[in-house]
Amino acid sequence: MTAPAEGIAALPVVRKQRNPVLQSEAARGLGLISPTFIYAVIFLVIPIVLVIANSFWTQNYLTIDRTFTLENYRIALTDPIYRDLLMRSLWISLLVSFFTVVLAYPIAFFISFHGGKHKGLWLFLITIPFWTSYLLRVMSWKVILGYNGVLNATLMGLGITNGPSDAFLYNTSAVVITLTHAWATFAVLPIFVSLEKIDRSLVEAATDLGDGPLRRFLRITLPLSAPGIISATLIVMIPTVGDFVTPRLVGGKDGVMIANAIQAQFGKAANWPLGAALSVTTMAVVTAMAASVVLVIRMAARRIR
Amino acid sequence: MPERSMIEISRVTRSYGAFKALDETSLTIREGEFFSLLGPSGCGKTTLLRMIAGFDTPTSGSISVDGQPMDGIPANRRPTNMVFQSYAIFPHLNVEQNVCYGLKRLRLGADEEKRRVEEALSQVSLTGLGKRGATELSGGQRQRVALARALVMRPKVLLLDEPLSALDKKLREQMQVELRRLQQAVGITFILVTHDQYEALAMSDRIAVMFGGKIAQVASPKEIYQRPVNCQVADFLGGMNFVKAEIVEENGASMILDTPGFGRVKTDKPAAFVRNGKGATLGIRPERLRVLWDDATDKYEVAGKVVDRHYFGEITHLVIEIPGFDKPLSVTETNNFGADDIPVGAPIRLAYDPDALVALAD
Ligand SMILES: Nc1ncnc2c1ncn2[C@@H]1O[C@H](COP(=O)(O)OP(=O)(O)OP(=O)(O)O)[C@@H](O)[C@H]1O
Ligand SMILES: [Mg+2]
Predict the structure, then answer these.
(1) Could you tell me which residue ranges the ABC transporter domain spans (chain B) (predicted)?
(2) Ligand located closest to B210 CA
(3) pTM score, two decimals?
(4) What lines the ligand 1 site, CB under 6 Å?
(5) What residue ranges define each of the domains in chain A, with the CATH number in brackets?
(6) What is the residue with the minimal CA distance to atom 8 of ligand 1?
């Protein structure tokens, strides 16, 4: 009779020993994540909460009236100016992410499949232009696309046009071109990573089963690199919607984007609540667009058989 | 079985710089044959298989499949299919889509396609798993999918690169039997790469043993096991006792060797035999030696002393010193008669069959 009794008595002892271990592990875990957590709260959560709070208030000349109102959202969603700006920004970011991915994919593909032993070197080389300031790169596009620019000179030199044209700069396409160039490298990396992860024997198996280079690219490589295409698209799309330097410098009147309007509300117009409401609206719409683009790419990848 | 040749490999060399992964290899593989390429790691088995499949090109020499030279024909247009060592199951497709991957291009029509997929799945006992995702399969199931995916193409030759090496022992043995049965059912020429001699012996019609980019011997499992051409082949295929012998007489196809224990023996002369002074090597498999109990006698016997004993459950492995031999002999004896109780140090007599003695080139 004593043996089972001992067994029962022994159980809580074991438990007691384990509990402090668990506690200290949990404590250590919390300790480990707390710097990141505090950082995230200070730099991410608080600003967003402030912006959202502002969007429900009203600007009263120099003071802010803190009574709850949806008036800012009414303006942001119904005023044709803001609606057009938002639509244009979404359209530009969609175009930019499309062209960026189309441009970056072959580069990533070449480095991953034909880079040999020097993949790292290739990746390093394509980042070199990005060591110069973004402003300088935007300015150089001005030099290329401008009235007295390289493009006009070339076209005239080749006899394609008679005189210089002002059609290249200060419009939507100038913004798209500049942003595409700026973001191409960032899109190369996620695509490269997803291509690197593809087991080469899968490509060989597709060949073995009768697929030529194009078919096996479409049926194996492309769908398996969909995660890379998705992250590249998101990496480019989300920040470009909110870009305001590029439209200001090369966009002209046609190229103004929503961020320029938001900046105006926080700056000259001094209507922070409206600016905040525009920001929150933009965030929500971008999230929705990003989600639908992800869905579309996923579905496209699944359709390929 | 018709003795028509399916694959002709003539003087194929594959060099990586100065290193020859394959060196002037020639080989004929017959139609409908289960053929194994056996050899230690790095001997060039995969290299040879990949050149047949078209993933690699010979530095020199040529390969033809079913009478058609393969020079310049890319892998996707060869009448061969491969089961990859890693199986290479497409992760974004389910079992059915994997199996019908190669059929899609042939535009057979939905009904015919479905029929062939079903047939292939039943051949590898995967009926009903068609809708399973590629990532939801066990190792054995993945291997079956890879097999079905290749078989559904009805290739002239099926190439298998160590298809069983990732499976555990029990499943591997089961798959060996199934693979052999499947090959006999479909009648397709199978070329199996393996470094497991038991696998090759159990499954093949013929085996090519390779060392260092060269083929040492091509023969049936029984012949390769019982009549290896040299010590390397003999050793690779399982335990073998090597005894130094003196050449008494050598002519055309046979020779007479003399050893202190076995006396004078007449044996076949191996094809690769090169006389090197007066000596030669005589080999005998450990299971071809038999312990003589009590007063039993045999026409052919040698006497010695037990120096070591290893117990393996159904068999016991005895190490026996014979006066005049440079190395002790290994004997495997089933445990029916108490071989596991023979004390170390006891005197012992062994019977042997002179036909089991083979002359070996070094
Ligand atoms: N791309 C390459 N560059 C240089 N040497 C290579 C290359 N591929 C293979 N080799 C060499 O060729 C030899 C044969 O390789 P192979 O893959 O055919 O061996 P294997 O017989 O299949 O061995 P294992 O049983 O280990 O798979 C090896 O020594 C290997 O190091
Ligand atoms: Mg190999």
Answers:
(1) 7-237
(2) 1
(3) 0.82
(4) B 16, 21, 39, 41-47, 195
(5) 71-303 (1.10.3720.10)
(6) B47
